[in-house]
Amino acid sequence: MDINKEELEIFSRQLILDEFNFKDFKKLQNKNISIIGIGGIGCPTAQYLISSGIKNLQIFDQDIIKKNNLNRQTLFSINDIGEKKSIIAKKRLKGINPLANIKSYHKKISEDNLDLLKKSSIVIDATDNWKTMKLVNNYCQSNSIPLLSSSVVGFDIQIALFVNNKKNHLCLECIFPNNNDMELARCETVGILGTAAGLAGLLSAQKTINFLMQFNQNNNFLTLINCKSLSFNHIKIDKNPKCNLILSKK
Ligand SMILES: [Zn+2]
């Protein structure tokens, strides 16, 4: 199995690991990852996925870089203010691995473009927008696309991976069955520490790699981390028989 000479050098320290022989590494490189939202969580998630050998990545963000993004959105610098996040993120990520295939979309995921997610091996939802989260959950669930949902407010991180296989229903809506348009506590109002967003991003990237490489197949957990105490809680989650997505199919 050939790996390009340049990539061989970039990833040489990773390729020493028993878990990443050329065949396994190639397996990782062949996956298609979609990240929705290149903000405080999306930046480190994308950065570390590319640094760990993910090669096919598409990123979605319709925002422009602002100064108040810089405390946590690690792909951007003061010189990027006013630029499109999607474009700058792609440039920085290509700086890590110039051979990565990165598609950047300066747009919001909506009902009209959900099919852009169709070929994803996994979708990572790093938005803090409840409407988008529900829309993406619904789409991934009905198309059997694995979905990792990651959020952080203040010092609290929340991450869950939904495998979305047809046999065992378990989705975001099962555990957060809000019918109303819930206003999430957003970082604009509650505040956010850069390291908390960074940790959420790193853990999201690790969880994604664990899933893709089948290092850890125990996914029916909601992981809650408090960054002050550095406590990790894995809460077992289960199908909700009253989930709207189940009821709507009956
Ligand atoms: Zn459900």
Explain the layout of strands and helices.
Elements (H helix, E strand, L loop, with lengths): L4 H6 L1 H4 L6 H8 L2 E5 L5 H10 L4 E5 L24 H12 L4 E5 L16 E4 L4 H13 L4 E7 L2 E7 L9 H4 L11 H4 L3 H19 L8 E6 L4 E6 L7 H4 L3
Parallel strand pairs: 1-2, 1-4, 2-3, 4-5
Antiparallel strand pairs: 5-6, 6-7, 7-8
Helix pairs in contact: 4-5, 4-9
Helix/strand order? HHHEHEHEEHEEHHHEEH
Strand content: 15-25%
The class by helix and strand makeup works out as: alpha/beta
Give me the CATH fold name: Rossmann fold
Mind telling me the C-alpha Rg? Answer: 18 Å
What CATH architecture would you give? 3-Layer(aba) Sandwich
Number of helices, counting only DSSP H or I runs of 4 residues or more: 10
Task: Pick out its properties.
250 residues, alpha/beta, single chain, binds zinc ion, eight-stranded mixed β-sheet, 18% strand, Rossmann fold
Could you explain the architecture of this structure?
The protein has 250 residues and is of the alpha/beta class. The protein has one domain (31-247): Rossmann fold (3-Layer(aba) Sandwich), CATH 3.40.50. It is built from 10 helices and 8 strands. The protein has helices at 5-10, 12-15, 22-29, 42-51, 85-96, 130-142, 172-175, 187-190, 194-212, 244-247; strands at residues 32-36, 56-60, 101-105, 122-125, 147-153, 156-162, 221-226, 231-236. It has an 8-stranded mixed beta sheet, sandwiched between helices. Strand 4 (122-125), helix 6 and strand 5 form a beta-alpha-beta unit. The radius of gyration is 18 Å and the shape is globular. It starts with a helix and ends with a helix. The model has no long low-confidence stretch (mean pLDDT 92). The structure holds zinc ion (ZN). Residues 169, 171, 173-174, 240, 243, 245-246 line the site of zinc ion. Zinc ion (ZN) binds at residues 169, 171, 173-174, 240, 243, 245-246.
